[in-house]
Structure formats: structure tokens, C-alpha cells
Amino acid sequence: MKIKAAVVEKQNADFIIKDDIELAPMGADDIQVHMVASGICHSDEALRVGDAVIDYPIILGHEGAGIVEKVGPEVTQFKPGDHVVLSFYACGNCDNCLKGIPTQCRNYAANNLSGVRPDGSDHFTESGEHVADMFDQSSFTTTTVVRERNAVKVDDELDLRKLGPLGCGYVTGSGTVLNTLKPRPGDTIAVFGTGAVGLAAMMAGKISGCTKVIGIDIVDSRLELAKELGATDVINSRNVDVVEEVKKLTNGRGVNWSVDTTGITQVMEQSIQVLTQGGTTATIAVTPNHIDLDTWNDLCVDDKKIVGVNMGDSIPQIDIPRLIEFYKAGMFDFDKTEKFFKFEDIKEANEASRSGEVIKPVLIIDPDYVPGK
């Protein structure tokens, strides 16, 4: 079937909305989803500009939310009319998937970042020519087909326009704290960067009972929002020495945990320097940058640890409903970071994300959608 999609034709090119993209037929375990909305993530931008290896032309987008239109004969968890949030695809069969760690799926890259479907077939074509996909999803589309394991069912009364970013940005930041670092009540945490991922990490720090949740950025308006969402303290790193300020806030010791969402070399190194003895930092940005380590003093003598985390070590079918429950309870106000844009204004929305003007742009793909109906 023909669909409308935002296509990036070559590295660093602008989005072009086309209406002649051919969507692949459904497989036995596929569901066809009418897209309502999609968040724009910094990972989309990383692939657009070529920071990660991918094919072009490509249809990006991996924070989609929509309504199931059709299901394949082997689908057991969904039916037409179900509301869903889309996330990454894991095979479910490898040793890591069977251990309950789908973010470490042995086939993760092939399934999500190869540009083709898990079986190697084209997800999208144009005039018979291959168009690459992302996350076996490509949510910058009016309709897509995904595997059953890509989708998470959500309550019909929730506003689908808000929920798409739960599939990546929000589950990554919160999952890094809740699933990987697992702070205990009374611990301290510093989060570098107050984008969607960083703010989600801060809210998770508050949920975990951290007595110090320190938000670090260079934009005062974002730091004000961080305080509203749960940061106990904020630091504008443009004006002060971050390491000294964190030490002042923690009786000279440093924090138990830190999270870097910026991918900037100096900042990633600061996320190590602010740790107390035995502390751990999680570096979770998609970045080509590297860091310089003092392996003797930091890693050996001070017993500090550095961990990488993919997608918040999440199981979307468990973690996304958990975040929704936190949201309903007023503990995870992720929608305060969002701003809606028309699908046709995707270039403007992406630029607002790149510049930092908007924390989480959300493309409204179906303007006729009415929440709760």
C-alpha cells in the first residue's frame, strides 16, 4: 500500500515528505498501525547526519504511537482498534532475550539499525527501490507495519499524542536509573543534560528516593523545569566549576551515581569526576566522541565504575506501562517537556530539537485524532 512518509534521501539532507512510499505487506506476526504521532529523538538526528552507519534514503522515527488497523494470523496480543506505543524490536529467541535482557539481543543491530526488516526484506520501497527503515518501525509515516514484539498496548483513554516518546527517550533515561543503576533511598545522583532523557533520569532519581538529584545544564530555563520535575539542586555549568559545586552539595564527597546524556567529551569526563569513592556513572548518549580516563586514580584507587546502557536496559512491555502508572500518579510528568508540531513542519520541529528550543518535539501525524475516542 502507498503511504506518506518523511524521507532523508542522503546523509545530512533535509526531510522530504513523500506520498508515494510503498509499505511492505504484513507478515504472520505483524501488526499494521495507523500512526497518530511520533516524538523526534536525538538518535533520529544522529542517523540523519551520519553519526551512525545506516543506508540512505531512510525513513526515520522510533517514538511512534498509533492505532492497530490489522493483525497477522499469528498475532495473539493485539487486535484492530488497540492503542499502542512502538519501541525497538528484539528477537525473543537468543540467549540474552531469554534471560530477560532484550536490549542486549544478539540480533539488536541487525533488527533495528540495518535498514531492513528482521528477515532481511525491505520495509519500504519507492518506485521499486529500497528505502531504509529504523527500529523496524519508522514512525515518521502515516502507516507502518511492525512485529508484535515492537508494540506495547496502552489504555484507550490516554492521549496517544503524548505517549510516543515513552518508547525511547523517556524509557532510556528512567530505565538507566531504575533498571541499571538502581539507587537506594538516601543515595545521591547527578544528571548531565536536561533533555528528555536527562529529565526522565532525574524523575526516576526522585522516584527512587535519592535525597540529592542534581540537574546540570547550560540553559537556565531547562534547569527551572528540572526543579519542577524533581531536581533538588541545579547547576549552570557555563558559570561555575561543576565538580566543585557537586562536592559542595554532597559534603565534599561527590555523588553515588551520575548519568551523562550529552555525549560531550569534557562533560562525560566530569560525570566521572563528580562521583564519590565507589560511585558509578552511566554514559548513554549516541556520540562519536571519546573520553580520557585516569585508570589508576579513578578506576582503581577510587573504585569508580563506568557503564554503558542501551535503551535503559528496558523491557518495553513492562517499563512503558510502569512509566504510565507513575505518570497517572503525578510522579512522572513527561508531557511537560513536549511541544506539538504538524507532520508537515518536521524540519522546523527537528531544528527546534537540535537548537534546544524544544525539549521533546512531537509530530502530530493524524490531525483528526481525538483523545479518548
Can you give keywords for this protein?
single chain; 373 residues; alpha/beta; Quinone Oxidoreductase, Chain A, domain 1; Rossmann fold; 2 domains; seven-stranded mixed β-sheet; 12 helices; 18 strands; globular
Model description:
By secondary structure, the protein is an alpha/beta fold. The chain has two domains: 1-166 and 332-362, Alpha-Beta Complex (Quinone Oxidoreductase, Chain A, domain 1), CATH 3.90.180; 171-310, NAD(P)-binding Rossmann-like Domain (Rossmann fold, 3-Layer(aba) Sandwich). The protein is 28% helix and 27% strand. The chain is built from twelve helices and 18 strands. The strands form three sheets. Strands 3, 5, 6, 9, 10, 17 and 18 form a seven-stranded mixed sheet that branches. It has a six-stranded parallel sheet with strand order 13-12-11-14-15-16, sandwiched between helices. A five-stranded antiparallel sheet has the order 4-1-2-7-8, with no helix packed on it. The protein is globular. The two termini are 26 Å apart. One of its GO terms (biological process) is formaldehyde catabolic process. One of its GO terms (cellular component) is cytosol. GO terms for molecular function: aryl-alcohol dehydrogenase (NAD+) activity; S-(hydroxymethyl)glutathione dehydrogenase [NAD(P)+] activity; zinc ion binding. Its EC number is 1.1.1.90. Its cofactor is Zn(2+).
